[in-house]
TrEMBL record:
Domain Cytidyltransferase-like: 5-133
Organism: Anaerostipes butyraticus
Chain residues that bind ATP: S9, F10, H17, G88, L89, R90, E98, Y123, S124, Y125, V126, S127, S128, T129
Locations listed in the record: Cytoplasm
Catalyzed chemical reaction(s): (R)-4'-phosphopantetheine + ATP + H(+) = 3'-dephospho-CoA + diphosphate
Family: Belongs to the bacterial CoaD family.
Gene: coaD
E.C. no: 2.7.7.3
Record-marked site positions (Transition state stabilizer): H17
Binding sites annotated in the UniProt record for substrate: S9, K41, L73, R87
Protein name: Phosphopantetheine adenylyltransferase
Function: Reversibly transfers an adenylyl group from ATP to 4'-phosphopantetheine, yielding dephospho-CoA (dPCoA) and pyrophosphate.
SUPFAM superfamilies named among the record's database cross-references: Nucleotidylyl transferase
Length: 162
């Protein structure tokens, strides 16, 4: 059975992320979307909220699960018997960073390969950072995130203003 892991912060999950998940799910028997818990970052959403948003967007995919992890990806992948890390690339600048991470992961775990998926053109400009910025000013992010995520963003920013 081929098992892959798609790690990220997903703060929040975007249509670009979901595109990579959908396409990866067709390639692997099982895909684990792994939400990184990073104590160094101050995310907008809690890990539980991120997991719920992702689950809402992938509920039609039977071979995809969502989990959280902290620490090294190579350790998480080993624990889950995953032999491939999935990464999305929007631009050349993403590749420069991602190839370094892929080579480091391969050095740490010889059984973990990285498969890169180029982002579909219609999502190449989308990032969680951009989505949060636009949403924080009440802008329209409906072409970048699911209606469920859009509602979560509105609710989160409304609570912050209160």
């Amino acid at each position: 059975m081929s098992i892959a892991v798609y790690p990220g912060s997903f703060d929040p999950v975007t249509y670009g992320h979901l595109d990579i998940i959908e396409r990866s799910a067709k390639v692997f028997d099982k895909l684990i979307v792994a939400v990184l818990v990073n104590s160094e970052k101050k995310p907008l959403f809690t890990t539980e909220e991120k997991i719920k948003m992702i689950q809402e967007g992938i509920k039609h995919l039977d071979n995809v699960e969502v989990a959280s992890f902290s620490g090294l990806l190579v350790d998480f992948a080993r624990q889950r018997n995953a032999n491939v890390s999935v990464r999305g690339l929007r631009a050349v600048t993403d590749f420069e960073y991602e190839i370094q991470i892929a080579q480091t992961n391969r050095q740490l775990n010889k059984n973990l390969d990285t498969m890169f998926f180029t982002t579909s053109m219609e999502y190449s400009y989308v990032s969680s950072t951009i989505v949060k910025e636009i949403a924080s000013y009440g802008g329209d992010v409906s072409t970048m995130v699911t209606p469920f995520v859009e509602k979560c963003l509105r609710d989160k920013f409304a609570r912050q203003e209160a």
